Amino acid sequence: MTRKMHVLASVLALAMSLSTLTACGSNSNDGNAAGSNKAGNAAGKEAKDTITALLPPVSGNFQSNFAQMEKDFSALYPNLTLKIEPASWEDMTQKLDTQVNAGSPPDIAFIGSDGISKYVQQEMLMDIKDVATPEMISDFDTAPLEYMKNGEGLYGFPAYMEIHALGGNKQYLEEAGIDYKKVQKDGWTFDEFREAIKKGVVKEGDKTKRYGFVFATAGVTAKDYLNILIKNAGMPASFTKDLKYAYTSKNFLEVLKDIRALIDDGSMPKELSSVDAGKRWNMFLTGQTMITGKGLATFENSAKQNNEKLKANDGSAVAGSIPVDYIVLPVPTFLGQQPVSSAAVDGYVTFRGQKDPTPEHKANVVKAAYFLASGKVAATTNNDLFVAQITKSAKEAAKSMTVDRNPDNVAAVDVLLSHANPARPDIPVELGAKAIKIEDAVIVPKLQALLANEISPEEMYEAVKSEAINTFGEDGVVKD
């Protein structure tokens, strides 16, 4: 984004925020969206305060906008200073945990909503449900906002709801006779998906030149493949609504069988367990697979950027890559179950130190978190990511922005968002921790062994079931 666009974004953000304040019933321009008491003297001046935020590179241009964000926030709230500390994705967790352990975390940190329970356990998060105004709350789509809750508490504002989908090469899909527009609209069953990816396989003698489907399953992606699939098999969460551990269901075994079948068909590489995120994307851009996963909306933008580099012949494109039109595709459904999209919600989580913050500081932190998660700031960031806007104010701000997205992909993501897996703030922290332990100690290593054909689906299922019963008891697991 050019500097001119940055300035325009800032002006519009200020105008949008002031418009929101007016709509909230303020009779003067010094009202605030947080609705806190106006601390200070009779002249209406508020005490100075500084809000700190630890933020990673949420999008490609996000961190380059920090200075402008700080300036815009101070223009909106002259008595307040927003101090942003940048972090890389690699050191974000370490930096945050170091500050948390020292008892002096930032006021705001950008983390995944799945990390909220961890810091609730440590009693270092700040519940803002009594400070966030009705106007703020009503600005957000309901589903993503629920992810920022744990029990009865609200611990920040969501930045986006990202859907984990699949991604296809348009040319290859058409060559295979796959009506991808119908699939985007209506979805597909596992059997339909299995037959479709068989058609995408291209062999040269005994060697597979192109696979029908490749999914990253190594490294940080080790948990993704199974977690995304089982949501479409009647297990949208690790616990049922009555808090029984879900992965002892017979449906879990059937999904494991299907995972193995796709490799045995030759539609996926036998070496799938060694494919990490980087190799997965490289294989897609170099034409070695028709469909890839986990697909994110921003991948369309990444593919477009690589296409432009190929056109320019500047040598910076991925080695051996080809032009690719990226198509968003849903994950197949299993066993007649309804589709449930795997959603990731990250956002601006509010922290507290060892002492309770003053009511004034708490209100100011909420103002800053809302500023980052809404309006022009959110619109700019989410457009950079190619993800949907989740606040009314960001949707309005985004109308003035031009984003080069395939309209079929936009519509497909809207369908996926319509059946995103709901948040589960009702799952007790201690149960969630035990489920994560089973995932790390049993599910992930056994899945790697299954993908490598070292164990059978039945053996993996029995291992998970046995550990679950040991952990939760016979009455604490699903039996069907």
Please explain how this structure is put together.
Keywords: Cell membrane, Lipoprotein, Membrane, Palmitate, Signal. By secondary structure, this protein is an alpha/beta fold. It has 2 domains: 3-162 and 345-418, 3-Layer(aba) Sandwich (D-Maltodextrin-Binding Protein, domain 2); 163-236 and 250-342, Periplasmic binding protein-like II (D-Maltodextrin-Binding Protein, domain 2), CATH 3.40.190. 45% of the residues lie in helices and 14% in strands. The chain has helices at residues 3-23, 66-76, 89-101, 116-121, 134-139, 142-146, 170-175, 180-186, 190-199, 224-230, 250-264, 277-285, 298-312, 359-373, 375-385, 392-398, 407-418, 429-451, 457-472, and strands at residues 49-55, 80-86, 108-112, 149-150, 153-154, 156-169, 202-204, 207-215, 289-295, 326-329, 342-350. The strands form 2 sheets. Strands 1, 2, 3, 6, 7, 8, 9, 10 and 11 form a 9-stranded mixed beta sheet that branches. Helix 1 packs parallel to helix 2. The termini are far apart. Residues 1-44 have low confidence and may be disordered.
Which second-level CATH architecture of the largest domain applies? 3-Layer(aba) Sandwich
Overall mean pLDDT score? Answer: 89
* Number of separate structural domains: 2
Give the full name of the CATH homologous superfamily of the largest domain.
Periplasmic binding protein-like II
Keywords: Cell membrane, Lipoprotein, Membrane, Palmitate, Signal
Pfam families: SBP_bac_1 (PF01547)
Protein name: ABC transporter substrate-binding protein
